[in-house]
Amino acid sequence: MEITLDSIKKQARAAMTELVNYGEVGLEYAGTSTHNIPPLKPGDIVVVGCSTSRVLGEHMGTHSSEDIAHAIMEEVLPIVKARGLYLACQCCEHLNRAIVVERECMERFGFEEVCVKPALHAGGAWSVRAMEVFGDPVVVEDIKGMARAGMDIGGVFIGMHLRRVAVPVHAQNDRIGMANVTMARVRPKLIGGARAQY
Q: Exposed site from 70, 123, 159, 198, fewest CB < 10 Å?
């Protein structure tokens, strides 16, 4: 499969569109019901972790690509902004998977800012790009499990940033370049027993 920036953009746009619309259009994937997944509301957080190396089919952290981060961001950020959502971009493990967010998001949710500047090989191309394009970017230690939707491009493990209960999105758009894409939305906990009604 030939990997081009145009194909990466198309795949990123399709995946993010599917993620933010999941549950709103009565989609059913692999027997998973979406009826308990509330729609995303303005002010909700969408977390995205991305290994640009994996998009290229390389080992994680070995071929960080600013061009690929740029291409994905160019498609993902406008979709998130158009719905009034906050994009949270996960750094790599060298920064303990810290998160780049807009200052407004940090202040709204009471996140703790940390003093670090993501770089290509300590944070990754994805977080570097977020620092370049966000209006007033800050790095926070974590987002305290507040994300209501998430996209993991290349197996970077975003689960720690999602609210409970995370529900996998069995998506039709599950690849960007050579990287597997896994996505999740969240729903309120189902409590009670045999008599409970939802």
A: 198
Q: Is residue 188 part of a domain?
A: no
Stretch 5-17: mean pLDDT = 98
Q: Per the domain annotation, does 52 fall within a domain?
A: yes
What is the Cα–Cα distance from 35 to 27, expressed in whole angstroms?
A: 9
Among 164, 154, 149, which Cα is nearest to 80's?
Answer: 149
Domain presence at residue 110: yes
Banded model confidence at residue 89, pLDDT cuts 50, 70, 90: very high
CB-CB neighbours of 119 under 10 Å: 16
CATH number at residue 122: 3.40.50.10360
Phi–psi pair at 15, nearest 5 degrees: -65, -45
Residues in the chain: 198
Note whether residue 192 is domain-resident: no
SS (H, E, C) the chain: CCCCHHHHHHHHHHHHHHHHHCCCCCCCECCECCCCCCCCCCCCEEEEEECHHHHCCCCCCCCCCHHHHHHHHHHHHHHHHHCCCEEEEECCHHHCCCEEEEHHHHHHHCCCECCCCCECCEECHHHHHHHHHCCCEEEECCCCCCECEEEEECCCCCHHHECCCEEEECCCCCEECCEEEEEEEECCCCCCCCCCCC
pLDDT at 13: 98
Whole-model pTM: value is: 0.92
